[in-house]
Structure formats: C-alpha cells, structure tokens
Recover the amino acids of this structure.
C-alpha cells in the first residue's frame, strides 16, 4: 500500500526539532505531568492492558476451580472474591479505560484538532481512573502485611443487597469497592464531558457532523451515555456507604428499605454500560472494515441514526435483568418490548458492515481478521440476548451459565476482539512501528479458537441448570466435561494474549518502520506523521468529504466522491 502524507488544507508532514536528550527521571516525570491527549491515551491503554492481565489471571483460577467436580483448589471465600474482582476489573478497570484511551488518542486527530478541549481535565480524568483502580485492589495489600484489609469484596460485581450490608459483608473491603467506583466514576464523567465538548466545538473547517468519522460519532453518543448513566451508579454507591456507616437503611428491607431499589439503580447504569462498552467497538469496526474492504462504509446516515437510536433505547431496557424479582406483568411486558426494539438499530449495523465487505477488495490483514470475527460473534451474542429478553426464557435461565456465555460473547467476542483489531490498526500511528503480521495472525487464531472453546460450550451447562456463581458441583450433574473444555479454552486465550504482549515488545524494539499511512487509509489521523507531533497538525485541516485523504489520493475515482 502507498505510504503517503498528503496536504489537507495545510496539513503537512513536519519533523519536530530535536529536543535535548532526557534522563530517565525526566522522561518518567513527563508522563506523570503530561496533558497531551496522545500520551494520556497511551497511559489509559497501558493501564487497562495491565488490568486485563490481572483480570485474566483471576479468570484462569476460576476456570481451574470449576474444571473438575468436587474441586477444592481455592476456598469458597477466595472463589467469591475472585469472581467479584474479575467482573469488576474487566468492566470498570479494563473495559471503560481502554476505550476511553483509544478515544483520547484518536478523536482529536480524526476531527483535525490539536488537543482535547480541556487538557487539564483530561489528565485529571485519567489519574482519577487510575487511582480508583489502584484503590480497588488496595484491599489485597493487607495480605502482604501492609495496611490494607487483606480481603476483597465477595458479593459479585453487581453487589446485590443485602449481601453488601455489614451483617453479610463485614470489614472494609466493600467500602474500598464502593469508594473506588465513585472515584472512577468521577474520572469517567470528566472524560465524557471532555469528549462531548471537543467533538462539538473543535472540529476543523469543513467537518460537519455528517462528515465526522464514525468512531468519533460513536464516542460522542457514548459520552452522553456516560454523563447520564454514571451518576446513577455513583448515587447508589453513596447510598450504600450511608447504609453501612450511619444506618440509612436505603436497601435494608427489615427497616423499611428495598433491596430491589439497589437493583434498579445498578441496572439503570448497568445496561447503558453495556453500550458504553459496545458502541466504541462498533465505531472501531466502522473505521477498520471499510479500509480493508477498500470501500466506503455502506449507509453512513443509517449508521449514525442507528447509533443515536441505540443510545436512546439503552435507557429503557435495564429491568430485563430483573424479570425474576416479582415485577408486575405490564412492567415485564414493557421491558420485553423495549429489549426487542434495541435489536433493530443493532441489526442495521450488522447489515451495513456486511454490505461494506460485500464486493470489496478485501485485505485479510490482522485488524480485518479480528473485525470479521467480531461481526459473527456479536451476531451470536445479540441473538442469545434476544432470547434472554423473552421473560419466560429468562425465568428458566436467569443466573445460569447461559447468561455468563451470552455476556462474554458481547464483552469478549465483540469488544475485546475489536480492541485487539484497533491495537493492530493504530499501533503504527502511535509508535511508528508495525506489529508483526505472522505473530498477529497467530494471536488471532489462538484467541479465536480459545474463545469458542470457552464460551460456545458454556451455553450447554447453563441450559442444563449450572448456576453462575457455584463454587463446585457433584459429578452426577453432568457438567464436568463441558467445564474442562471451557478451562482449556481459557488457557488458549491466555497464551494468545501473551503472544500479543510479546509482539508489542519485539515490535517496539525492532519492528518494521510503518511510515505515515501504512494502510492507505483516508481519515485525518493518517495525514500526519507516525507518531504525530505534539501539536498534531502544523496548520488546521480543511476537509470537503467524509474521506478527505482518499479524495486527494484518487481524485479520478468517482465512486469515492460523496459528501
């Protein structure tokens, strides 16, 4: 593919003046005090990848415990702590930060801006997020004889009342959990406000809303979801702390409170949270698939409308997590209908991605392989979601491993796959080096095989009645073979992630030079150097279409001339 850096209304390839040689301490201090959106984006991603490894290790211990019947690898208490911390880590400490980090790096470049609207707020948001994650794990430090509490919360990542009450969860671990989520919530709110403001006020000349790259569009929708949904979780954590410390009785049924109130507060955040994680993955797919299909995205206006529609509908489906708690028939019916409706704009996106691929000149590079797998796996996860949206089916399988399989089909099969695709796609822009394609394909195939061994077969014990939080089980239940297959698959996935880590380390040290536009792409981030200079663009860009670089590279091709 051509390696070109083309002028876009004054965007030029510039080489920064050589800075004086830094000492290691000066270099390290620069990362701690930076307000550059690109460095903060890298910090978000590295931080999240560290916790991906930690959460993955927790998952491996869980899988080893369940691999065979009557196993006692860890105690029931440790097992409860592991699945609580695994879920919390993957959703709050890995999932949200890595996607916010990608947005931090990419969005200003895609809209032709030189930084985020509020650089200091951007730094504050990252350090609040980072501090919250460290605070969450601080309770483990007591196990090493220091000043933590030596245990972790053990009530599940959704922390249902009354399990969070002092009677059932004594000690300080639940308090660390609640305060950490409040702290991370403030960081996420700051990031959401910053992305909204940057996108609406700092677009370069000619970039109307309907010319924005789809990843930027999706992050705009996600940021509104964050600003609306996260205060619900923060309010719930505040009420939990009041209950635990001064007897507020918000969730104490014996004193007139309601355990169901916690569920409403948590899931009115929790289901938009699924889309806070999934919509950025949709945006990543909508950037990568057209480039490697050599076609413009099919139905851009429909994609934008579907994204906004998902954002609106996501706030009307939370109680499909609560079909078994005794809500009224009309209430259940409302949430069944709302949950089915959200599948319509989601289905539009799948058809648009397939239509983009259809007839294209497909380049099966590693980012495209992960993207193709994402489409299939997201479709399967969406179909099992529609099944669980039907109240009678949900009554049968609620809190079973069928639900765990569905949830991981979305979080891993869709979101993590697209995060990996994004790493391979934008790594050349961030570092100036290419990741090794052979190692990339090895990573893809190992992770794909491991994913399907784990989560395809997880549906079966769920249908056979295996509860999602069970510590061990009798051989007579018939779940042993399926759990052993799932455990093997989990370790295959772990090996695949280690291949990625090895690939990154080797490529940083001795990788092939990427050039400025190794994929022959067409959004503005590929118009500047790799890595970009501190100021991104020497002159503010001017764009005239949705694919400004392609217009300059191929002015003779009428198929690409659209507004």
């Amino acid at each position: 593919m051509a390696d070109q850096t083309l002028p876009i209304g004054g965007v030029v390839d510039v080489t920064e003046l050589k800075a004086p040689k830094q000492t290691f301490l000066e270099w390290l201090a620069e990362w701690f005090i930076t307000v550059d959106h690109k460095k903060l984006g890298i910090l978000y991603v590295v931080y999240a990848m560290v916790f991906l490894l930690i959460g993955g290790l927790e998952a491996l211990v869980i899988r080893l415990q369940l691999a065979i019947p009557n196993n006692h690898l860890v105690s029931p208490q440790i097992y409860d702590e592991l699945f609580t911390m695994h879920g919390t880590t993957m959703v709050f400490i890995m999932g949200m930060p890595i996607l916010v980090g990608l947005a931090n790096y990419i969005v200003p470049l895609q809209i032709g801006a030189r930084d985020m609207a509020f650089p200091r707020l951007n730094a504050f948001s990252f350090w609040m997020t980072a501090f919250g994650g460290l605070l969450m794990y601080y309770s483990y430090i007591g196990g090493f004889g220091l000043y933590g509490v030596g245990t972790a919360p053990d009530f599940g990542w959704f922390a249902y009342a009354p399990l969070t009450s002092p009677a059932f969860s004594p000690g300080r671990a639940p308090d660390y959990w609640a305060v950490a989520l409040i702290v991370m919530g403030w960081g996420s709110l700051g990031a959401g406000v910053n992305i909204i403001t940057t996108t609406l006020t700092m677009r370069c000349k000619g970039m109307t809303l309907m010319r924005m790259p789809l990843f930027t569009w999706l992050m705009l929708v996600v940021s509104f979801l964050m600003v609306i949904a996260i205060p619900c979780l923060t309010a719930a954590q505040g009420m939990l702390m009041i209950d635990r410390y001064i007897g507020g009785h918000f969730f104490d049924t014996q004193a007139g409170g309601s355990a169901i109130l916690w569920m409403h507060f948590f899931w009115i955040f929790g289901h938009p949270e699924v889309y806070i994680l999934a919509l950025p993955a949709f945006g990543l797919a909508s950037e990568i698939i057209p480039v490697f299909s050599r076609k413009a995205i099919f139905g851009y206006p429909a994609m934008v409308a579907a994204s906004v529609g998902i954002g609106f509908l996501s706030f009307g489906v939370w109680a499909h997590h609560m079909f078994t708690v005794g809500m009224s028939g009309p209430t259940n019916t409302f949430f069944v209908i709302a949950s089915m409706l959200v599948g319509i704009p989601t289905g539009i996106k799948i058809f648009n991605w397939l239509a983009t691929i259809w007839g294209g000149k497909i380049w099966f590079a590693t980012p495209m392989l992960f993207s193709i797998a994402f489409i299939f796996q997201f479709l399967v996860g969406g179909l099992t979601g529609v099944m669980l949206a039907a109240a009678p089916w949900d009554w049968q399988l609620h809190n079973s491993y069928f639900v765990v399989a569905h949830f991981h089909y979305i979080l891993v099969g869709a979101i993590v796959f697209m995060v990996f695709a994004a790493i391979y796609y934008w790594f050349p822009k961030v570092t100036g080096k290419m990741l090794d394609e052979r190692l990339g394909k090895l990573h893809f195939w190992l992770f794909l095989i491991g994913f399907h061994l784990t989560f395809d077969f997880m549906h079966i014990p769920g249908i056979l009645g295996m509860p999602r939080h069970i510590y061990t089980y009798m051989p007579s239940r018939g779940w042993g073979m399926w759990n052993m297959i799932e455990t093997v698959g989990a370790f295959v996935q772990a090996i695949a992630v280690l291949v990625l880590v090895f690939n990154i380390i080797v490529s940083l040290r001795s990788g092939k030079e990427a050039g400025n536009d190794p994929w022959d792409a067409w959004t503005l981030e590929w118009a500047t150097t790799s890595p970009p200079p501190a100021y991104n663009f020497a002159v503010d860009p001017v764009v005239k279409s949705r694919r400004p670089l392609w217009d300059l590279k191929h002015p003779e091709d009428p198929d690409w001339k659209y507004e």
Notes: The chain has one domain: 25-560.
